[in-house]
Amino acid sequence: MSSSGLNMSRRIRRTPYTDRVEQHGVRGFSVVNHMLLPKAFQPTVEQDYWHLREHVQLWDVSCQRQVQITGPDAARLVQWMTPRNISRARVGQCMYVPLVDDKGGMVNDPVLLKLADDRFWLSIADSDVLLLAKGLALGAKLDVTVVEPDISILAVQGPKAEDLMARVFGEAVRSIRFFNFDYVDFKGTRQLVQRGGYSKQGGFEIYLNDSRMGSALWDLVWEAGQAFNITPGCPNLIERIEGGLLSYGNEFTLENNPLECGMGKLCTLDGTVDFLGLKALQRIAEQGHQREIRGVMFDGGPGPACGKPWPVKVGAEQVGQITSAMWSPRLKRNVGLSMIARSHWVPGQAVSVHCADGVIRPGEVCALPFA
Ligand code: THG
Question: pTM for this one?
Answer without folding.
Answer: 0.97
